[in-house]
Write a structure and sequence with these properties.
Elements lengths: L16 H14 L3 H14 L1
Helix pairs in contact: 1-2
Length: 48
């Protein structure tokens, strides 16, 4: 039997220009890309 790890599918998130600029500012201050910023914010929100 072949047991391959399932790959997570990307979660499309649609942002307006204002939201994108806000997230890009946060991403820049954290030193990560936009995708990792969204993941981190979701993770922190779920933990709290």
């Amino acid at each position: 039997m072949n047991h391959r790890k399932k790959r997570k599918l990307p979660l499309p998130i649609y942002l307006d220009e204002f939201e994108r600029q806000k997230l890009e500012t946060i991403a820049e201050s954290w030193g990560v890309n936009l995708s990792n910023t969204v993941k981190r914010l979701i993770r922190e929100k779920l933990i709290k």
